[in-house]
From TrEMBL:
Similarity-based family: Belongs to the TRM44 family.
Coiled-coil residues: none
Organism for this UniProt entry: Dasyornis broadbenti
UniProt-recorded Gene Ontology molecular function terms: tRNA(Ser) (uridine(44)-2'-O-)-methyltransferase activity; zinc ion binding
Protein name stated in the entry: tRNA (uracil-O(2)-)-methyltransferase
Length: 296
């Protein structure tokens, strides 16, 4: 609808209409096939020759729809835009069964049938065009999408949250201390308590929660991003004990083994710096650097 020269490619996945979830109308078709037909119908209403193709991708939803050429000359663009407006309104009211069947469409016969089925009707005053109103309340996505996976948050802010949450877990009523027997000596290392995400959030200040709320996944995403320090399982936050981590598999592909080796000792060990008991692993076994002199 943005311009006559526009072309499009769409890979339909989730079943949504213009204003909410798509409602099935034909029980003889699968839900996926019916939805593909609906998306194709939108293309026909918008005046496209709609082509269908099946992508070579590992997915059950791999049928794509492509609109490369128009079914009408540029001079009829305003007319088609009026028809698009009416089509959107018909989907909004869900009154397709009672709509008039007056169709101002000069496309191929099968397009006429599709539009008639949708209850397409031209507004008599012809005032709603692309130059006035497309869809009240519709907000298109920004040209530049904001990264909202907590990766763009200031490093100081992330470090502060990580330290606060870790201290909260360590100061909570401790679980049974994890023990590591080395050379006959019992060496205890405090793993702290596990708390639910809600309990952790309740201990953070409002300003911190406000910042996290604007990110996708919020607190949970931030904690999962800090894989070295935390483990988030079933909605509960634990301090990660690296003694329990499985050693790298010898059957790993060579590329993954090489990348893992290249990352060894390239970052400082959080536990060596911040944990009251230090790191649970000896320096030679820890994948992180115990001090700047070990950094690679």
């Amino acid at each position: 609808r943005s311009s006559y020269s526009c072309c499009y490619f769409v890979l339909p996945c989730c079943f949504f209409d213009f204003h909410g979830k798509y409602s099935r109308r034909q029980s003889k078709k699968t839900q996926y096939r019916e939805y593909l037909d609906f998306v194709a119908q939108v293309g026909f209403v918008c005046g496209f020759h709609v082509e269908e193709d099946c992508l070579r991708i590992p997915s059950t939803k791999r049928v794509s729809l492509i609109g490369k050429s128009r079914t009408y000359p540029p001079a009829e663009h305003a007319l088609i835009d009026q028809q698009i407006t009416q089509f959107i309104n018909s989907r909004r009211t869900c009154a397709m069964a009672t709509c008039d069947r007056r169709v101002g469409f000069k496309h191929k016969d099968h397009c006429d049938a599709l539009c008639e089925e949708a209850g397409l009707e031209l507004p008599e005053d012809g005032t709603e065009t692309a130059d006035t109103i497309w869809m009240p309340g519709f907000q298109p996505r920004e040209k530049v999408e904001q990264i909202r996976n907590c990766a763009s948050l200031p490093r100081d802010f992330v470090d502060e949250v990580v330290l606060n949450v870790a201290n909260l877990l360590l100061s909570a009523a401790p679980q049974k201390s994890c023990s590591d027997v080395q050379g006959g000596n019992m060496n205890t290392w405090n793993q702290g308590e596990s708390l639910s995400l809600r309990e952790v959030a309740e201990h953070l200040n409002k300003e911190t929660l406000k910042k996290l709320k604007s990110e996708y996944g919020g607190l949970q995403t931030l904690l999962k991003n800090n894989h070295q320090v935390f483990e988030v399982l079933n909605g509960r936050v634990h301090i990660r004990d690296w003694r329990k981590e499985k050693p790298p598999s010898k059957t790993k592909p060579e590329v993954k083994r090489r990348l893992s080796a290249e990352a060894f000792k390239t970052r400082l060990c959080w536990f060596f710096i911040h944990h009251p008991d230090g790191c649970s692993l000896p320096s030679e076994a820890c994948p992180y650097a115990h001090g700047t002199e070990e950094l690679r």
